[in-house]
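Quick one: examine the sequence and fold tokens given here and explain what the tokens say about the fold. Here goes:
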Amino acid sequence: MTTSPISEPPVTGEVVLRARGLTKSFVGHTVLADADLELRAGQVLGLVGENGAGKSTLMKLLAGVHSPDSGTIEVGGRQVSFRHPVQAQQAGLSTVFQEFNLLPERSIAENVHLGREPRRRGLVDVERMQRDTAELLDGLGVAGLEPGRRVRTLSVAEQQVVEIAKAVSYDARIIQMDEPTAALAEHEVELLYSVIARLTARGVAIIYVSHRLQEVFDLCDTITVLKDGRQVTTQPAEDLDDAELVRLMVGRSISSFFPDPLPGTEVGEPLLELRDAGNGYVDGVDLTLRAGEVVGIAGLQGSGRTELLEAVFGVRPLTRGTMRVAGRDVRPRSPRAAVRAGLAMVTEDRKATGLALNQTILDNALAVVRAVFPRRTGAARREVPGLLSSLEVSARATDQEVQFLSGGNQQKVVLARWLATGPRVMLMDEPTRGIDVGAKHSIYELMRMLAAQGVAVLMVSSELPEVIGMSDRILVMRDGRLAGELPAGSTEEQVLQVATGVTEAPDTEAVPR
């Protein structure tokens, strides 16, 4: 089977996909009702909405994972009825899901051609397979990826390119992308942008699902909004802005999206102090974090933001300087020691380092208490249901496995396991990565509640609007050092100028508001 790039792309502007009245129910519960979609060659259509809005269901109906209860799908003007994803792929509609479907010990070429290997005299034609894969990668504008490389040696962004190449190899005219940047670093997003530009220039149409609104506006020509399983609107992207899109998705204005400090919140005594602190990753760090504060850490990829939190939490222990927690000299040599000192840390990758996905909600929520404070387990077990309820975790019961929860609810379980320890200082690394805007707002409200209770919050985020909207002060890192401090309300331009070294911040120990 030849798997070269599209040889006869559709005419730009031609309708390549039309869906009408798509409806789907599970166990009597309607999760998608009367959804309409029209997609043209070379177009990028953004599909947005909170978790549970129906985005995944719509994608799976188009991909042939599920069959609609009612409604029709047309591809290239022909009505189709997919009973399996392979049928959708054969019709020119491929899907790149958030969870990659690659074999790590196989090569790039083997993954792209899996189950469709070209043969010569009954044997796999490896040379042709690698040549075709090289052509695919070249057509996507990707340099430096050798078809013979094993997938396990690739970065997340490179693995994503392999998934896209596999989709294109089916002569895809339509590609669905589900949260394609959720696991990418900032510099890797640029690669995805360039690949999408190459595809649309060849007339490939793309359905793009993302919680990152900036990407939606950067890439999409048209935006479809779903809410509670129903289509709210489909409009040209140029007719919308952040404020209106948030209002359409969650039913509240963006002005209330980042909540202000709760009444009665007071900045109190220092709870975390670092003086000339460092290790092999960060150096010369001086900071003071006080009770009742939410302090954001900004910086470019590789600036040392995550490494600073890991140093404080004992993952990569500090080797020089001093550290004090609530007035006591400490230098945690392990996360267990950090927890005993009153610290908690929400890691950026909840699936890899934050949760045991095949365990229950209750077991996950109790995991840290059991490991560090076993005598408190009984009391914590009684408190956890109320804690989960206050976090508004949406689940059937506490014995449900975490892997079956939405991203937002999984993140709330991560928060519950740390709140159960009663921390004085909460370290949060990308706390809203990969979750919808409604769940983000819930976490912002939790951060304000913790501050009102006298907890100190230190947050790392790659989303500058989040850093600016939630921070009482902003610390900016560059090359493993604190480059400066900015007050609340600083602009993105001011933060980036300090992060890149264009300007220096006025003071690295400013007075908190």
In short: Residues 15-256 form a domain with the Rossmann fold fold (CATH 3.40.50.300).
